[in-house]
Amino acid sequence: MRSILPSLAGPLIGPLAEMTTATKPEFEVVRRNRLYEEVAKQIERLILKKLQPGDKLPSERDLAEMLRVSRGSIRDAIRSLELLGLVEARQGTGTIVRQTSTETLANPFANALKRRKELVGELLDFRKMLEPPLAARAATHASPEELIEMEDILRRQEERQRQGDAAVAEDSEFHYSVALASDNSVVLKVIDVLMDLLRDTRARSLQVEGRPQKSLTGHRRILAAIKRHDAEAAKNAMRRHLEDVEEIVLNKF
User: Fold this and answer.
1) Which of 71, 139, 182, 187 is an S-S bond match for 231, by CB 3.0 to 4.6 Å?
2) Are residues 239 and 138 in the same domain?
3) Beta partners for 96?
């Protein structure tokens, strides 16, 4: 795989500065409000016009310097291109241009939906690996104060549902409280990222008729096992809950 970094030279800084006079810049400075959308358009143009499958995009840092935007905007742009099937992230390698088909170019929306479903499926699968053992650990580590907090979250979740609200915040908060009770700060960072990635998916799935009530029932089952300090029951209750969620979510997409 060949890097395309030299072909992106322009008014850059750092180690790329020496290339400023060698090649005409491929990018323009981005000045729009929805930065990541414009960034994605510019990278997509580059992919379609200049690059070949297997070519490696510059790093987040280099792209941010070239386009004079934040690395967060670059990440959002890359994620949108990944959903379109134009690039893929490879562990230890970077972001690689994918082989594009006529169908991909002609119907990017359908391709994005397909890829989105695959990504959501992978995230939900990861949750099934991570959260049942966390529930088991919470059953043996949760403090009385943490149990009271979980009960309060479910009380608020039920109250919001009575008012016709999907209680998205409380749904996320309960899962976070279980992770918190597992007493591992590293896990909390992973859960933070996972919840952020699934925010839109959770909000949409909780609009499905019957899903909020089913979620609350699953949460109560998990909490009951944690309060009994029954690690195995807590693990099984969490797994069952996530399998129910997975069935609803994947049918939604």
Assistant:
1) 139
2) yes
3) 56, 88
The answer on 154 and 248 residing in a single domain is yes
Q: Which residues, other chains included, contact 34 with Cβ-Cβ below 8 Å and sequence gap of 6+? A: none
Show the domain range for 23.
5-106
Do 157 and 71 reside in the same domain of the chain? no
The 3-state DSSP class for residue 165 equals: coil
Report, as an integer, the average pLDDT of 203-217: 83
Amino acid identity of residue 71, one-letter, is: R
The sign of the torsion formed by the CA atoms of 186, 192, 198, 202 equals positive
Q: Alpha-carbon distance 5 to 197, whole Å?
A: 29
Confidence of residue 8 (pLDDT cuts 50, 70, 90): very low
The Cα–Cα gap between 125 and 141 comes to 25
Q: Which two tokens stand for residue 55?
A: 């070519």
Residue whose token pair is 């949760």: 142
Measuring CA to CA, how many Å separate 169 from each of 206, 225, 230? 11, 23, 27
Q: Looking at the structure, do residues 239 and 126 belong to the same domain, yes or no?
A: yes
